[in-house]
Amino acid sequence: MLSSATALLSAVLLAAPGAAGAGDPYFPLDGNGGYDAQHYTLDLGYAPATGQLRGVATITAKATQDLSAFDLDLDGLTVRSATVDGRAAGWRRDGNELVITPAAGLRNGRTFTTVVTYDGLPQPIDDPEIGASGFLRTDDGVTVAGEPHAAATWFPVDDHPSDKAAYTFRVTVPNGRSVVANGLFAGKAAHPDGTTTWTWNAADPMASYLATISVGRYDVTSYDRDGIRFTDAVDASLDGPTVKAARTGQRMAYSGAEVPAYKRLTHTVDVPAGGATLSFGAVLETADTGYLMVEAHTVGQDNWTTLPEQSGLTFDYAGELCHDLDTHPFLAHYVSQQPDGTCSPDGTTGHWNGQSSFNYGGEFGDWTIDLKPFAGTKTEVAVTYLTTVPQPDEDSTPRTGVYLDDIKVSTGHSDTSFENDGDTWDGWALPPAPAGSRANPGTWRSLTAARLPMSATGQIAHASFAREPEMLAFMARSFGPYPFDTAGGIVSPALFDFALETQTRPTYNTGFFGWQDIADSTVVHELAHQWYGDNVSIKQWKDTWLNEGFATYAQWLWSEHEGRTSAQGQFDYSYSEIPADDSSWNTPLADPGADGALGGAVYGRGAMALQALRMTVGDSTFFKILKTWTAERSGGNGNSHDFAALASRVTRRDLSGFFTAWVFSAGKPPYPGGSGPNAKVTAGPPRHGLPGLLPTGRTVRY
Question: Per residue in 616-633, pLDDT tens?
Fold first, then answer.
């Protein structure tokens, strides 16, 4: 017989500190041992003006051994106090470890609650692979996003994906700011001091690096569809116009965004014998088939040409313009189709010069045009916005057009800033489109910034988010039911160079919303992570292909669904274009090294391995494997060996040879079936190079 007193003494003698790491070979001190975190309640106060964070972290955990002490990961910040089960606990800092010593030992299997009070200025992580990440301040708030390290920069945590937990976020910020986080919105409460507390509950198990908050001025949209609560947050500045203010005065000239269009703003100039210059401010947000150009001809003569911008802002590359001669016959003055199929920038009377761009931002760029070619003549000058219908291989993303202000001619005549002063255009004319072109649906307009359309980036982001229900329904057919009860996304103004699959609400930087098809594909990638990476997380960081390869493969499936390159075409192109001596084959897919855990190979090779498996086992069995993986490990973790074993079990085949070649070994595997890619589908990459196809020399971050 063993008395209770003897048993207690024995437990005390056997109690030991939990390990300072989770045992991950890539990041040995990430995570901790001795307990299983079950729930985090984060009561935070954030001051955007100073960046100061105040926090109280309440952590419910279950001991997995007899504990005399245990660690939490915490990077910087100042700890003020710690308690365990309501009793003051000892604590000390050891690098990025916060070592907690409870007043009494904790028995194996006991559930206990730790409360840590802390504050400070969280610092972003400067990662040589992905740049700035972690706690990222913005002009009006903050966004948290980072992988593999981020969580420990803003709260004490068992920071490893093997220990998933539920979260409650209660974040207090100044009035006028919104807070968006993981999970479901649970309400907000205003306080007399001019602050508001926002509460979000993320009830499903979540890896710590997927926890996020975004504080700032956001346009937040919520709705229910197919039993899922969608909440999307877009930086409010994107909902406004690209151009925030006129260059001078209150108004500017705006082209509109119609396609096709040929909109001229013309004036007749007496160019002196010594020449003259035309100058103006311009902001371009044009489609790939939209241009700003300056045309000119001598009055009474058909010697039309386009004139180059003096600092090199225009180009004389004619591209696909010859395909548009039927739409705009007048372009024959500037371009001509050559026998070899190319388009020459020389036409019947003149030469092509134009600019197509959406990289100006909202600031007016200075354009200067030399009128010397028309020295000593009466010259009609046209500042022209031209759009054509995209060809099948051209981007069809709609954009907002061209903005002009402060047109000046060096002779001192013909100046205008488009003000509503009784003579808005100051002698500049708005003629119809040239003969042969379709009538313009509108013309140049004089507008204030308040009347301009939403920025193209904002329109693209909203359009992509509007397709989230469609995307989830599409992926559910291949991956099984969507695993959570809420979904959505955050487009943040923070300066970071990636998108991250923060659970239920992925976080994006604005740069992903430059082209509609790339934006849609990126959203598909992050939503696919909700199955692969979030619901089923990896056990160690060496298995990131189970996250990134699967999400990239979802993009391949979406591309095929959208009528573009098929998954087989993506595979064949990649297999053909990545030679056997390419560095992307240098390490096993399931062990790429710490520096390669988020490198391009785990994306592209990971997707290729999945398509190769599909080619080996057949469509029906392949998708059964994917659905079984998410069903059996829902809310948990897995590794490459687990996935290989499941595939063999589902197929009732020994697939060890396949997984040895494609997952567990370095080197380029043989083409599945041994025949090689079909030449019919290897003509070129998908438009804009969807991720994972060209890993050589390129790191892709999603």
Answer: 999 999 999 999 999 999
